[in-house]
Queue: 2 jobs
Job 1
Amino acid sequence: MSVDQQSIWDPDVDFGTPAIRDAESVTQSVTVTIDGREVAVPEGTSVLRAATEAGVSIPKLCATDSLKAFGSCRMCLVEVDGAKGVPASCTTPCADGMVVSTQTETVRELRRNVMELYLSDHPEDCDGCARGNCELQALAATVGSAEVRYGRPESRQQVAHPQPVDQSNPYFAFDAASCIVCSRCVRACADIQGTFALTVEGRGFDSRISAGGTDFLSSECVSCGACVQACPTSALQENSVVELGMPTRSVETTCAYCGVGCSFRADVKGDGPDAEVVRMVPSKNGGANEGHSCVKGRFAYGYASHQDRQLSPMVRDSIDDEWRKVSWDEAIAKAAEGFLALQAEYGVGAIGGISSSRCTNEEVYVVQKMVRAAFGNNNIDTCARVCHSPTGYGLKQTFGTSAGTQDFRSVEQADVILLIGANPTDAHPVFASRMKRRLREGARLIVADPRRIALVRSPHVEATYHLPVLPGSNVAFVNAMAHVIVTEGLHDEEFVRERCEDADEYLAFIADPANSPEAVAEATGVDPEQLREAALLFATGGNAAIYYGLGVTEHSQGSTMVMGMANLAMVTGNIGREGVGVNPLRGQNNVQGSCDMGSFPHEFPGYRHVSQDDVRGIYEQLWGKTLDPEPGLRIPNMFDSALAGSFRGVYIQGEDIAQSDPNTQHVEAALRAMDLVVVQDLFLNETARFAHVFLPGTSFLEKDGTFTNAERRINRVRPVFASKVGMDEWEITCAIGRAMGYDMSYSAASEIMDEIAATTPTFAGVSFARLDEVGSMQWPVYDTSSTGTPVMHIGEFVRGKGRLVETVFVPTTERSTRKFPLILTTGRILSQYNVGAQTRRTANNTWHPEDVLEIHPADAELRGISTGDLVDLTSRVGSTTLRAQVSERMPAGVVYTTFHHPVTGANVVTTENSDWATNCPEYKVTAVQVGVANARGDQSVAETREPADTHA
Amino acid sequence: MALTAPTGQVFVPGDAAAVSVGADEVAAAFEAAGSHVVRNGSRGMLWLEPLVEVETGAGRVGYPQVTPDDVAAVLAGGATGIGVVDEHPWLTSQRRVSFARVGVVDPASVADYEAHGGWAGLRRALSLSPAAVVQEVIDSGLRGRGGAGFPAGIKWQTVLDAASDLKFVACNFDEGDSGTFADRMVVEGDPFTLIEGITITAHAVGASEGYVYVRSEYPHAVAALRRAIDAAYTHGFLGQDVLGSGLTFDLHVRVGAGAYICGEESSMLESLEGRRGEVRAKPPIPAIKGLWGRPTAVNNVLTLCAVPMILSNTADGGPGWQRYAELGTGRSRGTQVFQLAGNVKQGGIVELPFGVSLRELVEGYGGGTLSGRPVRAAQVGGPLGAYVPAAGFDVPMDYEALAESGAMLGHGGIVVFDETVDMARMARFAMEFCSIESCGKCTPCRVGSTRGVETIDRIIAGQDVAANLVLLDDLCETMTKGSLCAMGGLTPMPVQSAIKHFPEDFEPQETESSGAPV
């Protein structure tokens, strides 16, 4: 197949200063004349930007349109009629009628002289200049500074302040010799990323960029890459650019890590099989990220070409046999024939499929189509089952749509942010930077989380309230918030009456003293007075927005909690405009999309129930098959049925259920019990240990399709190079379907989207062509005149009236006991992603080589545990061993770990408890005991397990 | 010989300049001898320090350059004095407005301050509307004493008109110019005047919080100011409901960390916010977006110290602003506190209405050089000010006249040099000062100052003098026009004035064969 590529690398125009946003000003327009060209711009726009918009290029070095004007380089000086001196055009706002000259002899002379000063300390052997990757060099040619009368250092060693190159970071280096001290890196670190790791040390000519007085790796730097992106010279440069040289072409695509869904420009060198990604550069036009990135998306793409990557189909008769590399035809035939045989012997429902949140909408759509049409049942589920299925359920019940209500940009209008069970600086870092910027502007933050996450207090950010809600008590907490607001009469009576239903019942329910902060204090562990104050702030502080993560959903009452938050938003009228809403921070790049695409056993694409005759009719007609009107099996049901003997074969697309699903022993037993496990993945993952057919998958760099992020934004994924395994994943799925006797085929991924659009009203206006034209769209996109819906439920809810649900708090059955006195909760860390299959195969391991158990000092002392000790972590279902880290972030009685490394086997200890409505596992609450590990006598489960992919 | 018998009270200046020549030891000696010692400020006649004053029936009699060994003689009436200090011609010929109480009052005493007319301006201001206060300051013609000379009342009007629920007053007490010490002396000698001036400003612009940014090199002033602020809180001149007026105003002291650039107002604001002292680009101006992005009245110590007098009625009941406006010349109204330093016989404070000639100050009040050699030049207005040749000393000391002559008033410091001065080295010093003290933000200042030092070194060494003078001139033009703030923008002023007025010092020296600058 051919690789669709954009031709040559064409850097975006840099307007020098950010655009004036509507919200910032009254959007009054002013007209200025620049070098004779008249241009109208919003009031507050800099002369530099206006000139660029008018097509007049003004030289600049310290200015870039991702950062506020700084005014240090003095290259963009201009003359303004009637004004004294030569103001910097970056810091001078346009005034109506202003007449600006950018090319007078005075300013040209000044620019030449300033450039001469720059070059007087810039080495002639600068790498960036040699590479042609240096704004300074390019500008020197523009302004004309042939002679440097002060003299110029010939080599890097001869600059005024020679320093060794800082190569501590695995992805980029800092070479002070090429640095022009423009502070773009420092400003990017502060203003864009919000980490404040970089500073300028010294003053005058001794001023130099410093990572807080230490090297980059030892500093507060989170390796987001914003500084590298901002650097105009090669002082901060990706190692990959140094190793591979400058790119020859670039492709706009979408990151395959978290649910933020950042847009990137993949800079590529070469064509064909030898093509290599030189770097990933965040796109400033990306709707989700607007030019920002994190250490994962920016740098950790090397897994796609890692030696562990499997490129050949493989089969084996028994999981005890060695893998045998075979042709695609043989592998597909074995899978298809095996599935048909199982259905023949055990019935139509004996097989099923699991789709992946990491695959494209098109790939997922095809998998569910294969299950429904070729398998002839509805045994399709997806990994969202184990993360945000309660979001889909809860928001559908209350608002009518299984998705968040806002776009990310909405946070810029929020005045109060309630953050529950989410740790965005680690798990959704690019959105976290946006949130932190708003917090620095003065928005107030309420953090409800058992851990003292970074946002509770970090540079220039401090939560007004940190409410350490105990794991399992979220519903009691959110009810108490609403209780305070309603009983204090602070709820939005008009909104509740006009836009919601079941108001009387709900208001009576929530006002019950049983929901008061005092009544629930024991369950939540939250000081009632603090909770009351927080509730008052939420109700009276202006636009209040709720952001949440898996700390909400992965509970036995996950769906109840989602509805509880919806209630809170509705009773305060915080729905249906910018700056408010209920916003899930979704985990995987396409978890929203995989759910949208009909991955659940009870729903067709667009969240339409399989029992709906009209909907089923659409697909029956199109697909030419009679479809099952009954919901199929959920993942946990598949496991249970497998152990019971009725479910015998499964097709698993890119999900490592043996590592990521709870109660590993149970999952492994179910997998062992099956006759045919088909795994499609990049790597021989944990699940592949139980597989009979392995189908190599494609990385996001090879995919053509779309991902849908947490804000319902449909982003294009474009192939950087052709599939390394010879087939696209949707082709593989179709081939299995065909081999099973059902004709399904497409000539291109775009045809799949066309089918989705034709059958799904919320996607009706979506096509690859339209996405390529407008960049991205947020569903619903009801027709081709729409470019999407950033904010939902304006004026009216999708379901008509919002539904207020009586969210009764029912404590989980998983509680601490004498034997298991601590509660384990789980989470993520910045540098690693999910089960680590990708990030562990990159230099991101520099930051997080192993999972650790965080434990409160009091709990540690009681057990004689010190930081660094190996400890046994035991629940009623299993045990594992990992290293302890004594941490004040934890409240007493709660321990915490991550699940990025298979050797940790965190899910060995998690239980089969799950959400009542959706079976989302209760990862966040497990009663455990912790003790110093015995010397060698008591080997843990995890130690005896042999993680597959480390041995592959 | 004493004119009259001592009444017991002895004044030994606690001013840092006096302390530096032994005033603390002298004070201890008087106390040991049983005297009641008041640590007053300095009268500003620095060549006389420690200038001890003894209270007598006829007034306070001064004894210059007192040592502990002289204490007994002073008390016994056997020492040689300068007579009643208030009658000293060096003082009587001045027009002390901002310095009226400095050296006179006990800087630790609220009551003494009040007894000398203190708080009258604040009391009256609080009875007026903010707009009325601003108008009186506009009408007084008061201009910023930090150097730029911007009309203070206009600045206040901008702050007053800026809509914000939170506004600030920030007092720039980062007095870093060479040859200046008036801010320090007024705060050490009469701190309540500053507090009163700031509080009036707060009322006028609607500020609820104020900050005084003091350089760390001024520990005595910091102590005096903190002590005075505590006393002002105790007596209801600061804090909640100032003097029952409803005004709530809190005043804080912040000490810098040794950077000259933090005397530049936007760097000072950065430093106050806890950041690296780095110049901000303007616009926005601090009056609209200042401290923490809020409207902020940033004023120099001397500006604020003129305010209480402007707001208080004169002895005959006339308006203070009018009396102030009657002083001075042209658009430079009121008095200027000149500071005489360097190679000068009689250094110190000379407060006079604008318009006095530089010659009167240097040769009259200063008495010529300390070395006794002829005066060759004076640098006016700090390290960024021009060198004025002795032949040009008839220039009237006001903003416009000085600007016209290619110089500037700055903060009113005058540093005197005799005929032995090498002006090429002084030019080099200007560039060197900038290279050390530049905040490092803008390129002309950050790199240019170092290149300036190197270029002047080559000139001094006689290398390609003509070409290097052209290069230096280009550089000066680039720094003047291209720099972000006055630091880089004014550094060329001393350099170019030295070249202009003393070209002979930049010519190749035949005796010097080559090379290394000293």
Note: Chain A touches chain B through 36 residues (CB under 8 Å).
Job 2
Amino acid sequence: MRVTLDGVTLAYEGAPGEKVRALDAVSLAVEGGVTGVMGQTGSGKSTLLEVMAGVLAPDAGRVLVDGRDASGGAGARLLAASVGLVLQLPERQFFESTVEREVGFGLLARGISTREVRRRSERALALMGLSLDELGGRSPFSLSGGQQRRVAIASVLALRPSLLLLDEPTAGLDPRARRACLEAIRAAAQEGATVVVASHDANALAAVCDCVVALEDGRVTLDGTTRELLGNAALMREHGLEGACAARAASALRRAGVAVSGAPLTAEELAAAIVAGRSS
Amino acid sequence: MGEKVVEARGVSHAYVRKRPTLKDVSLDVAPGELVAIVGENGSGKTTLARHLNALIPLQEGELRVVGIDVRDAANVWELRRLCGMVFQNPENQFVSSVVGEDVAFGPKNFGAGEKDARLAASSALAAVGLEGLERRDVHALSGGQQQRVALAGVLASGPQVIVLDEATSMIDPRGRDELVRTVLAARSERGAAIIWITHDMELAARADRVVVMREGEVVAQGAPEDVLTDEDLLSSAGLEPPLVVRTWRVLQAAGAVLGPAPVTVEGLVSALCA
Amino acid sequence: MRAPVGYVWADSPLHRMGVPAKLLGLLACVALVVWASAPLELLTVALVVALLVAASRVGWRAACRAAWGLRWFLAMVLAFNALLFSAADPLFSLGPLHLTAAGVAQGLRVVVRTLLVVVLGTLLTCTTRPQELVDGVRRLLRPLGRLGVPVEAAALAVGVTVQFVPTLLRESRQLMRAQALRCGDVASRGIVRRAASYVRLLVPMFVSALRRADELSLAMEARGYRLDGGAASVRGGEEE
């Protein structure tokens, strides 16, 4: 699914009668793959996701879904039927008594048969490394923090959204849950969904994203491939952000006079860059 | 001062009708030491932290913090004054929306008069780099600033131990760096011991000592260079080594480097420059 | 920078008024609302409230925002009263449901009273900063301190509550949007669906409020807070 934002501006009420711009003339397009959104707290990341999801209407500008205006009519219906939004700390939305009902809720509300609901829930939970047979009958509130997060994400994955939006999906997760979460994001993209992930976690974004945009005070300040941005620690630092850990190490090595080639994103790439730097 | 600020011996704990969350935990912390506690969710880190502040009754074992037995009800407030905590969610630890009033909350509870509490609050705010923000609304601050206000609230009571329970997991990288810098400064200026519970292995690599927890037990503790380079140990605890260590392993396998793996970027730089 | 939620920057007699007096005034108005039951009485009180709104210079929109948010709930209240209040002289009956004039009158009375109280409460938050409110409660209760009323604890409780309100409000709005998306019906209206969505909202909001309260109480205890001056109260604690 192709989503295009065209000059989107959105403001909210701020101090003494003035309006604060959460988004300021944001234009960008996403289609397929995983797009990362970076930026400090308050830069507009969450607002951007909610605008893309069609739950917040922009004050100015347009959101286009597959070329159709999403502000009403067929465009809005198309968006509502095909978007999945995972908020920050999504486990705080739980309201059902069992994991099975929680994951199946959205599907049942759409009138899908119980058998199909079970099949899809099973698959969504498996994507997150969990088993419906094992956890289905348990209360979602009784699970560990990492399991809760994964169940919450599975409940959105089960809807098979063609546009999947996630806000800080890995915040507070331990390494194991974090890995499962990142794998599921990749899997969703491989199945054809257009995925947008907003996060502070440069390493998580480096692991899953094809391209990245950076927001600063509601404006898009950087827009490029993951390697161009997260692989360039100096550039990210200039914008008050953080590059991938490997890129930061590469940049520290260069400052100390060690030749390191390229823009590494992982430990393997950093090692290869160090070896390549030595031989050159 | 050879005395330990934390002395735990055989501490065990179980919540009602649940498997034990702490099993026979023994841990010493020296004055001014920076100790990182790492482990998966549910490994007992938070339960241990809450014991240090006497927020959970001690069921089994011995635990003395700053020389005070946590079972000694008469001294529990002195213990809490000397051992402060910063929690994960900045929004849920403020009692007043006015910065200065919130920071003065601790000193007032510990018996300071209105004026002394305000003075303590001002100097603590200066120590975390937020001087002059006494009248500001805490909700108007960034996450990193909020955590520093929380830290100031702890510093204002003059603690000898500061426990940070995943205090950086909900703030952005800039806020995290600010907080880390401020905590390290508080440690070197005041000599307070720091116990940092975290998932961030790059942060753990900067500690004096790393304690690894798994299913309520301390499975390893030692210098970061020893603990964070032990892949088998870490993976059995559901963790993975810092990126620098993983990079070093790849270089080692390629025969490009020799010697023990560094754990921090600074360590990597000096190892490769040597 | 985020403004204190609900506060409207303006200069009016209500903004300048002392908070203890304002709180007493609010109590008096609420008492009037409770007392009024005849249509004429309710109309008079409504007029008083309208005059207060005009005097506050916060604008009708701001003053009625919270009341407008309750429209579906109030519609339900009206329907329940109209259909279930009484079985005598029904204008219309369907099974156990009886539409009666008395029921409609009772429903309207409840709705109007609720609306008036909500508008009065909104006026208070529109014209008073949270911290002024806390100080106001403290000053208002101070004389009672001599009678053994824990004034500081009460002021603290008010302060903690008002500072959680903006967070909870923001959370509830976001939750509502996300839940609607999960059902795939952002645009859907209709009273039954609305009612169901409130239930889906209540559980997480309740859990969240409890979690916040629990975390805050833990943080307060860690910072040496004690209600009484003496005995150690160590909490039971809970899962990490």
Note: Chain B has a mean pLDDT of 93.
